[in-house]
Write a structure and sequence with these properties.
Shape: elongated
Helix content: 25-40%
Strand order of the largest sheet: 3-2-4-1-5
Mean pLDDT: 93
Distance between the termini: 49 Å
Structural class: alpha/beta
Order of helices and strands: EHEHEHEHEHEHEHEEHE
Number of strands: 10
């Protein structure tokens, strides 16, 4: 990869406030140092991230396109104009890898449509790190994102996915809005089979990291506080249960 290469660079960010040098590859730092055009969910936090890993970079030269739920859909087709003019652009997530559980996927799709090279850079993904550490089936797993907010619909979805997990031996991965984590855990414990394996992975890659897999009946005896802590939930109902 040459320093003059244009294209859309998918820039992973950290998963917490710990030292980013410990979780990011030197190539990420190199590319951030040379790119001036960025697409991010929040300009303020993106600028803070860039300052952390590229402290000598002049903030005034940075140019941002903001991609979040408030972005006008009519503006998005023009987000990659810099790339089309031969400039490299960086797409970053608020946490982890762009395009995975992240709105950046629509920009990547647009890049392919416009024949712009897409270059994914290596970095932390809470979903994959949790899966790696869970001990559940890494050969067959599904990321389900958020379940319905409605309590009845959520319970039905949990039951349906637990059945699918058993029939296909597929680990099921979920996230929840951090302030709802404790309620989500309570619903998992009340809805799942007592022998279903449940992994809770919290604050991944930080000094407060907590990752543990236990049967649901054992989790019911534990006291864990996940309130406002970034958490990945994985369950799998195994045949020997």
């Amino acid at each position: 990869m040459t320093k003059s290469a244009a294209g859309l660079y998918l820039i992973p960010t950290g998963l917490g406030n710990d030292d980013l040098i410990n979780v990011l590859s030197p190539l990420v730092i190199e590319q951030v140092n040379r790119i001036t055009h960025f697409i991010a969910e929040n300009e303020k936090t993106a600028r803070r991230f860039i300052k952390q890993i590229a402290p000598n970079k002049t903030q005034a030269e940075l140019k941002f396109k903001v991609l979040n739920k408030f972005t006008d859909s009519l503006d998005i087709p023009y987000f990659l104009e810099a790339c089309l003019s031969g400039e490299p652009m960086g797409l970053m997530s608020e946490a982890g890898c762009p395009g995975v559980a992240d709105p950046g996927a629509q920009i990547v799709k647009l890049a392919h449509q416009k024949n712009i090279q897409v270059i994914p850079l290596v970095g932390p993904s809470s979903i994959l790190l949790a899966m790696m550490a869970s001990g559940l089936n890494g050969q067959n797993f599904a990321f389900n994102g958020y379940l319905p907010i409605d309590k009845g619909e959520k319970k039905a979805a949990i039951k349906r996915l637990e059945k699918h997990s058993f029939e296909h031996q597929q680990a099921q991965i979920f996230i929840e809005t951090p302030y709802r984590n404790n309620k989500f855990l309570d619903q998992l414990l009340s809805s799942l089979n007592p022998n279903t394996q449940l992994c809770i992975a919290c604050n991944i890659s930080t000094s407060e990291e907590f990752i543990k897999t236990l049967p649901v009946k054992e989790w019911s005896k534990q006291k864990v506080d996940l309130h406002k802590k970034p958490t990945i939930f994985i369950f799998q109902k195994e045949h020997f249960n």
